[in-house]
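#lab-general

N.A. 3:47 PM
ok so I finally got the sequence cleaned up, no stray characters, all 158 residues accounted for. can someone with queue access submit it? mine expired

B.Y. 3:52 PM
send it over

N.A. 3:53 PM
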Amino acid sequence: MMIPVTRTALACAGLLATVLLLPACAEVEPPGSADAATEGQSTATPAPPNDPATAPSSATAGDLARDAVRAAGDVLEQAFGEAGIATDQAVDAAGESVKQTVDAASEATRKALEAAEKARAEILEKAERAVEEGQRALEEPGTPAKEPPPPEPQIQAT
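B.Y. 4:20 PM
back already:
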């Protein structure tokens, strides 16, 4: 998402600089040009001094270029600021996702350990009961010992 914002900002800055610089470039006459050499020798009727179309511009090409660069810099600064905010939000979201995953894994591990401990306790309890029963059977006279189960019949091939 950062790339389109940055490209858009750069395109806007370039367009703004072009729009601001073109009029300035059109007003500036290069030194030694025909118009500059004949300046003041025009045969046309001079325009009234308060005519805004012919009034000398107080802004020079350098001033306009500087303003365009400042405007472009402002646009870029805003775009990079927005990109930075978007990056921070993405990092925060990713961090939250990782935190949730770690929390879920920790909870699953805790439950698995509890189940394993419960199973171990049950096995130990059954083993202790079996040992106690075996001890009692050995200590009591007249208690018949359990006989082992008969072997399973085996089939022989003929």
